[in-house]
Amino acid sequence: MSDIPLAVDLDGTLILSDMSRISFSRVIARRPWVLPGMLLKELAGKRGQWKRDLAERLVFDPAELVYHEAFLDWITGEHARGRTLVLATASDRIVAEGVAAHVGLFSDVMASDVNYNLRDRRKAEALVARYGEKGFGYAGNSRHDLAVWERAGQIVVVNPGKGVLDKLGEAADIVFE
C-alpha cells in the first residue's frame, strides 16, 4: 500500500475500452460529414482539437461504459482509506470529467484539451510538475504509459497490453490482469 497520490488512466485501465474510439464511432455514425474535418486536424497535428470536437458532439452515459471491476474495487478501497485519486487521461476533459463524476472517487481530473494532448511523456511531465519525481503512483495499461511509470513512485498495471509487462520487468508493484 502507498500513501502517495494515485493517478489513474482512463482508456484500457479504468474502462476496458477507448473513449476516442467510442466518441469517433458514435459521432461519425450520426454525422459522417464531420469526418474530413477531423482527419485534416489529425494530419495538421491538432489531435486535441478533434478530440474536443468529438467530446462536444458525443452523447453518452458513463454508466454504460465497461469498467475493470477488480481494479475499480481496489481503488474504491484506496479512496476509502484516504488515498488521493486523480483521473489522468489523454481523453478530452469534457469526457474525463463526466466519467470522474460518475465514478465519484477522483479528487481531480488531468486531461487533454484543445491545445494539449496529455499522453506519454507529456502526462509524465504534468504529473511530475504536480507531485514531484516518484511522488505519485500511476495505474495504466499500455506502452504509452511506460514514460509515466519511469517517473512514478508506484507502478500499477491494469489490463496490460501486449509486451507491457515484458518491458516493465520486475518493476510493477501491482498487476490487474
Overall shape: it is globular
Helix-strand pattern: EHHHHEHEHEHEHE
Proportion of beta-strand residues: 15-25%
- Point out poorly predicted stretches: none
Give me the secondary-structure category.
Answer: alpha/beta
Write down how many β-strands occur, each being a DSSP E stretch of 2 or more residues. 6
State the helix count.
8
Q: What profile does the largest beta sheet have?
A: 6 strands, parallel
For this structure, the quaternary state is: single chain
- Please give the order of strands in the largest beta sheet: 3-2-1-4-5-6
Mean pLDDT: 88
Percentage of residues in helical conformation: 40-55%
Could you give the distance between the termini?
Answer: 18 Å
Gyration radius over CA: 16 Å
Description of the structure:
The protein is α/β, with parallel strands linked by helices and 177 residues long. It has helices at residues 19-30, 35-43, 47-57, 69-80, 93-103, 121-131, 146-149, 164-168; strands at residues 6-8, 85-92, 108-112, 137-140, 154-158, 174-176. The chain has a six-stranded parallel sheet with strand order 3-2-1-4-5-6. It is globular and about 50 Å long. It starts with 5 loop residues before the first strand and ends with a strand.
